[in-house]
């Protein structure tokens, strides 16, 4: 295949799908990557060095990832033209190669382009944003018992106010819509109708069910004690409240969950081991309090898009910050791994930030393609590096006796630990 700017590696094959939707992974799979804006130039190359070292260590040269750079964000505009933030060939390649990884991409506030991150998720219909929250011993935390925080967030990735249906205050569209709301729907509660911008929050039964189905299946497959649906359904009854109701209905219908506590919550038996899995719910503001006070009560979290954005960043702070918080955008066939943090522009190009979020996202990628030995190697090296207290600024400033190292310095330390393992 000839692309406009993408160079296909001379070695390597595509990952393909088997008939049952499992992955067929060659020993030299081509992995598309987006470097990312801002600190993307710092963290992406370090991530690749660490992953290559882990794969080499685990498989002694029998397996290797063949990286293929694809473009989005500012780098794409330099190659493809001033408005080409997300070239079509990037979308095609990511879809076709099934497994990819990306650095952060800039989104301007107020005006300008809509989020490329959100656009990628929407165009590829990657409806699960999976963000595990795990604690590495020795990581500085504001909590007294950070090891009690052990959650996996399933953030709905395709709906909610991230759909980008917004109308600017004072525009023709906003005026028309307010008129329609007042005249046709009797909605007269817009407090300042002449100066209001409007945003629409679509939340569907299909969108909710496919997300909650994945969260419950994950709890079954990974022997987790509960799935909590987090929503603000007391206020937003037909969007967030419906998310809870549709999620509970699905748990009953597809997983045989039964009502407990007079129907307040549900319980199902894990078919793999007969253990109970509680299906609970919690209102978002209460949840944000409880994850600080009683994190041990929460395990798998299923929530809407905006809640998931807030919750994943708050929980990341409990276990060391977004410098080491990994993530993935998934559907049944395509997976795009990505750091949870953004482009941190003030640190861009300074070889300063923590590459851990990108590296641990790549660790998830390795596990996703079944290369668990290489993934384990990364986790072991990460644990050793943190315990040696040679860490980037974000950890160093909260850790007594730490030696501050650069972004690439931390990567080099990981490679050292991998090679010595
Ligand atoms: N998926 C994506 O691509 C995302 C993109 N964005 C975009 O990124 C841009 C900047 O967003 P902003 O809100 O500033 O959020 P950022 O996540 O980019 O940065 C906020 C703060 O988080 C800390 N931080 C971020 N990355 C790291 C890291 N690797 N290591 C250590 N600390 C880190 C820094 O804290 P401190 O100042 O304390 O050192 C930084 O100032 C925006 O355009 C936004 O839209 C945002 C989130 C996700
Ligand atoms: O797309 C963006 O700019 C921000 C996205 C974000 O905050 C996230 O995915 O967590
Ligand atoms: Mg975010």
TrEMBL record:
BP-aspect Gene Ontology terms: tricarboxylic acid cycle
Cofactor binding note from Swiss-Prot or TrEMBL: Binds 1 Mg(2+) or Mn(2+) ion per subunit.
Binding site residues for D-threo-isocitrate: 115, 117, 121, 131, 155
Site positions (Critical for catalysis): 162, 232
GO molecular function, one term: isocitrate dehydrogenase (NADP+) activity
N6-succinyllysine carried by residues: 102
Matches recorded under PANTHER family: ISOCITRATE DEHYDROGENASE [NADP]
Natural source organism: Lampropedia aestuarii
InterPro entries xref list: Isocitrate_DH_NADP_dimer_prok (IPR004439), IsoPropMal-DH-like_dom (IPR024084)
Protein name: Isocitrate dehydrogenase (NADP(+))
Residue(s) carrying Phosphoserine: 115
PTM-bearing positions, type N6-acetyllysine: 144
Entry keyword set: Magnesium, Manganese, Metal-binding, NADP, Oxidoreductase, Tricarboxylic acid cycle
Cofactor: Mn(2+); Mg(2+)
Assembly mode: Homodimer.
Residues the entry annotates as binding Mg(2+): 309
Similarity annotation: Belongs to the isocitrate and isopropylmalate dehydrogenases family.
EC class name: oxidoreductase
Domain (Isopropylmalate dehydrogenase-like) ranges: 30-414
Positions that bind NADP(+): 106, 341-347, 354, 393, 397
EC numbers for this chain: 1.1.1.42
């Amino acid at each position: 295949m000839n692309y406009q700017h993408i160079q296909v590696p001379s070695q390597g094959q595509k990952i393909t799908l088997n008939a049952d939707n499992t992955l067929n992974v060659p020993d030299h799979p081509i992995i598309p990557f987006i470097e990312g804006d801002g600190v993307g130039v710092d963290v992406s190359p370090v991530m690749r060095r660490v992953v290559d070292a882990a794969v080499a260590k685990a498989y002694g040269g029998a397996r290797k990832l063949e990286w293929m750079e694809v473009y989005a964000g500012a780098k794409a505009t330099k190659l493809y033209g001033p408005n080409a933030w997300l070239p079509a060939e990037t979308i095609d390649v990511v879809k076709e190669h099934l497994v990819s990884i990306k650095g952060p991409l800039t989104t301007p506030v107020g005006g300008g382009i809509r989020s490329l991150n959100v656009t990628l998720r929407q165009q590829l219909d990657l409806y699960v944003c999976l963000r595990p929250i795990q604690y590495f011993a020795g990581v500085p935390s504001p909590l007294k018992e950070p090891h009690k925080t052990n959650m996996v967030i399933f953030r709905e990735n395709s709906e909610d106010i991230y759909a980008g249906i917004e109308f600017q205050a004072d525009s023709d569209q906003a005026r028309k819509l307010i008129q329609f709301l007042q005249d046709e729907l009797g909605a007269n509660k817009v407090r300042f109708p002449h100066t209001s911008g409007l945003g629409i929050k679509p939340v569907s039964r299909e969108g909710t069910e496919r997300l909650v189905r994945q969260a419950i299946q994950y709890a079954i497959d990974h022997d987790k004690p509960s799935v909590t649906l987090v929503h603000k359904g007391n206020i937003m009854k037909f969007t967030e409240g419906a998310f809870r109701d549709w999620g509970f209905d699905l748990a009953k219908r597809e997983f045989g969950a039964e009502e407990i506590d007079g129907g307040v919550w549900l319980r199902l038996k894990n078919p793999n081991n007969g253990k109970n899995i509680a299906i609970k719910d919690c209102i978002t503001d209460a949840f944000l309090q409880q994850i600080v006070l009683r994190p041990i009560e929460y395990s798998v979290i299923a929530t809407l898009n905006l809640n998931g954005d807030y919750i994943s960043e708050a929980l990341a702070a409990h276990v060391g910050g977004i410098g080491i918080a990994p993530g993935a955008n998934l559907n049944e066939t395509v997976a795009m791994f990505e750091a949870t943090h953004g482009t941190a522009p003030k640190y861009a190009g300074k070889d300063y930030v923590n590459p851990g979020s990108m590296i641990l996202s790549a660790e998830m990628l390795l596990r996703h393609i079944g290369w668990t030995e290489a993934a384990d190697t990364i986790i072991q090296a990460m644990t050793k590096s943190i315990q040696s207290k040679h860490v980037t600024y974000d950890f160093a400033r909260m850790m007594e006796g730490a030696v501050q190292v650069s972004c690439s310095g931390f990567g080099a330390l990981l490679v050292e630990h991998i090679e010595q393992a």
